[in-house]
Backbone:
């Protein structure tokens, strides 16, 4: 059976023994920890949807290697339709989870390596692409949950990797052996890595140059491999979940916030068959470009559109609970939220419709680079605006509301039910539930995390300028002709 059941995935997670720390404590059983269980729930949902006939057309595909039905999250896009369905699936996942499902970065990693290894082999005569396809077959046949580890600590941001006081601030190869390589360093702000079954390591988020060959490494390591340590985030959301784990969290998504971790690689061995780049610095820019084009479509161009659907729905609901849904400024804000959502989605659709095979002959399709970047920038500028408008509509109670525990406390329950009501036909509990959901976005880490995931805004602005620069001379000619200025 190529498609795994959620139950089978949960059984496999119980067997994982990664070295994980949260809040200063080592976690012995990740399958039961209150901060990690939501991550497991989110990934399990991807397996559930692949087996649901309602979503089968989005959540499954046919392997080009085996001809078997496989998960969309282990599939390589081979057409515009594939790119479109992958984006639509991610949008639907966001609507259903209200959080990350933790598999899209891994799919983008597979997507990129299918293209870049093909290109390297054609130019260099290497066998990276065959190694990759062997690995991809293994991932597909076992329906593995895979993630990408890409963001390095970086240290002094204006210095190159080799110029750092500590040259391990970007992950690098420290030894080459007959049977493989040894890597050292860290990848930070990685989403749900303590539950992912396999980690795809990609080079830093900067094109590498000659002399930086040790940092040009792509490889795969399994969860909990010797030398790997996971140090998790511990925001107020995680602390609240641990503190109140016996109390149902009103409105906080079942799947939690987007739990991240620093992944430390302390002399981790990787066999050659799991190495897909080792020193080829000239291909790192192409790899980075492909990852941006792939991930912008599934992350900011689709996932965040689904998140905005939830925020718009929550804002409209709380407005109705408060009886202000027909007030002009509320209608204006809801309309503006819809505008931001739809323009982001429109750019994503355009990027998908202009998708092309890259490189020619590889059979691997990528979305249009400019439209995918603009979709990402629309999200980066727009999601915080949507969040603030939702907070404004909700009012101060989104922060000052009491705990659900007070509804269960006989000494305070009556007061809350009397004084914390909205319109007559809405219960206090439902109003608190919706405010708590909005608190998760407007006063928690979720918006900032979603805003940053996929890369910093200046990175995308720089890419947009580079892509748009080639057309500036033509645009100048248009303007000069209308203004009556003679051509140079």
Residues:
């Amino acid at each position: 059976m190529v498609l795994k059941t959620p139950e089978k995935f949960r059984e496999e997670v119980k067997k994982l023994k990664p070295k994980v720390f949260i809040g200063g404590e080592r976690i012995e059983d990740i399958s039961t920890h209150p901060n990690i269980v939501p991550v497991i729930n989110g990934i399990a949902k991807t397996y559930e949807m692949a087996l649901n006939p309602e979503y089968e057309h989005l959540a499954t595909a046919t392997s080009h290697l085996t001809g078997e039905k496989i998960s969309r999250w282990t599939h390589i896009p081979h057409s515009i339709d594939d790119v479109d369905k992958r984006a639509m699936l991610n949008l639907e996942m966001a609507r259903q989870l209200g959080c990350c499902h933790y598999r899209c970065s891994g799919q983008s990693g597979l997507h990129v390596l299918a293209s870049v290894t093909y290109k390297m082999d054609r130019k260099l005569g290497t066998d990276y692409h065959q190694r990759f396809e062997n690995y991809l077959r293994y991932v597909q046949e076992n329906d593995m949950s895979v993630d990408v580890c890409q963001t390095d600590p970086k240290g002094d941001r204006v210095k190159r990797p080799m110029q750092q006081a500590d040259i391990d601030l970007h992950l690098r190869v420290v030894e080459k052996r007959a049977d493989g390589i040894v890597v050292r360093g860290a990848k930070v702000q990685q989403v749900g890595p303590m539950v992912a079954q396999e980690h795809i390591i990609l080079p830093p988020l900067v094109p590498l140059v000659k002399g930086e060959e040790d940092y040009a490494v792509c490889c795969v390591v399994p969860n909990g491999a010797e030398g790997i340590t996971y140090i998790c985030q511990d925001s107020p959301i995680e602390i609240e979940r641990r503190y109140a784990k016996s109390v149902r969290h009103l409105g906080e998504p079942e799947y939690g916030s987007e739990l991240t971790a620093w992944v430390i690689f302390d002399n981790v061995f990787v066999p050659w068959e799991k190495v897909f780049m080792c020193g080829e610095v000239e291909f790192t820019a192409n790899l980075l470009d492909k990852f941006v084009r792939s991930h912008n479509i599934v992350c900011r161009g689709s996932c965040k559109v689904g998140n905005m659907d939830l925020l718009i729905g929550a804002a409209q609901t709380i407005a109705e609970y408060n009886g202000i849904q027909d007030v002009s400024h509320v209608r204006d804000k809801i309309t503006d939220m819809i505008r931001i959502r739809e323009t982001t989605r429109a750019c994503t659709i355009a990027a998908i419709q202009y998708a092309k095979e890259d490189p020619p002959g590889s059979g691997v399709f990528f979305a249009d680079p400019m439209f995918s970047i603009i979709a990402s920038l629309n999200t980066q500028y727009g999601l915080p605006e949507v969040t603030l408008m939702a907070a404004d509509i909700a009012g101060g109670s989104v922060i000052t509301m009491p705990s659900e525990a007070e509804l269960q406390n006989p000494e305070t329950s009556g007061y809350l039910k009397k004084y914390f009501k909205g319109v007559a036909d809405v219960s206090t509990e439902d109003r608190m539930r919706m405010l708590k959901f909005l608190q998760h976005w407007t006063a928690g880490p979720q918006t900032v995390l979603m805003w940053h995931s996929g890369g910093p805004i200046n990175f995308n602005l720089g890419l947009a300028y580079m892509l748009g620069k080639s057309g500036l001379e033509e645009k100048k000619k248009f303007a000069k002709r209308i203004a009556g200025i003679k051509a140079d």
Observations:
- The first strand starts at residue 19 and ends at 22.
